[in-house]
Amino acid sequence: MAEQACADTLDARQRAFCAHLRDPDVHAPPPDVAPRRMAVYRELVFNTVEGLLAANFPVIRALHDTPAWQVRVRAFLRDHVSHTPLFTEIGREFVRFLDARAEAGADDPSYLAELAHYEWSELALFLDEATLADAPPYDAQGDLADGVPVLSPLLRLLAYRHAVQRIGPDAVPDGTPERPTLIALTRDAAGEVHFLEIDALTALLIDALRHDPDCSGRDAIERVLAQLGRDEPALKAAGLAMLAELRGHGVLLGTRRR
Fold first, then answer.
1. 11, 41, 112, 178: which sits with the fewest CB atoms below 10 Å from its CB?
2. Dist CA 119 CA 241 (whole Å)
3. CA distance 137 to 251
4. Rounded-to-integer distance, Cα 245 and Cα 251, Å
5. DSSP sequence for 171-205
6. Quick one: CA torsion of 54, 58, 59, 61, rounded to 10 degrees?
7. Would you say 212 and 222 are in contact if contact means Cβ atoms under 8 Å apart?
8. Quick one: DSSP state of residue 110?
9. Please, what sign has the CA dihedral across residues 40, 45, 46, 52?
């Protein structure tokens, strides 16, 4: 019983300690901790989280002045419950935080959650432990039309309502575009992350190659055009040119070796 009482007391003290660090304006500090020590803990926790978020989301940080940014970081600390202690996952938690705010009807800019997801996606791809060596053996100069195109294992397809890759302090959206923005995100052999804005037809072609890894480039194009009810020779030629462009941007690595 005594041990349980001690455990309950320790748990209560730890919760009170953390509650104060997360929201010092509402939760009083533990009475047995010196104010100067408590101030050090508060500053350390806030500055660590603020620094990580600023590094993970440089564009979002640039869109805020310092007071507004500190308010947003404080709201994240106060309101969001993270389920991981890993520093590398704090970006994902911030995205979840902004998504939850958007679903709750918060007055954040309409593009903010999408921009956060885009910035996090770049970092997540940079940290991804997969490599180009995870792809099946391929011929980098293979015939993309009659061969089987090999997609990069370091490819992410992203879709947003806003042109997130163009947002910055001097390019803030004043509305929602009529057409969505589609992005192919890749990482090259040197570890550099690149983005390629694509159209809906290209996204469908990539999706077709993903769902049938034994499909030739020509067959994938014909399937997409049949899906759209289109069979023009000009579109088939455009599809073949699209395959070559995707190889040039590292979305396709080449064709699978037999």
1. 178
2. 30
3. 15
4. 9
5. B--SS--SS-EEEEEEE-TTS-EEEEEE-HHHHHH
6. 20
7. no
8. T
9. positive
Helices (H), 104-232: 112-127, 200-211, 217-228
Span between the terminal Cα atoms of the chain, in Å = 70
* Domains assigned to the chain: 2-108 (1.10.150), 132-256 (3.90.930.50)
Q: List the structure tokens of 19.
A: 């509650």
Q: State the residue for tokens 């309409």.
A: 110
pLDDT for 186-198, tens place per residue?
Answer: 999 999 999 999 9
- What is the pLDDT, as a whole number, of residue 87? 84
3-state secondary structure of 34: coil
Residue 183 CA to residue 209 CA, distance in Å, equals: 16
AA identity, residue 158 = L
d(CA 235, CA 251): 20
Span 82-120, pLDDT tens digits:
888 888 899 999 999 999 999 999 999 999 999 999 999
pLDDT by 10-residue block (mean), the chain, 258 residues: 56 80 80 81 91 97 97 95 87 96 95 98 95 95 97 97 96 91 96 96 96 94 93 90 97 94
Pairing outcome for strands 193-198 and 149-151: unpaired
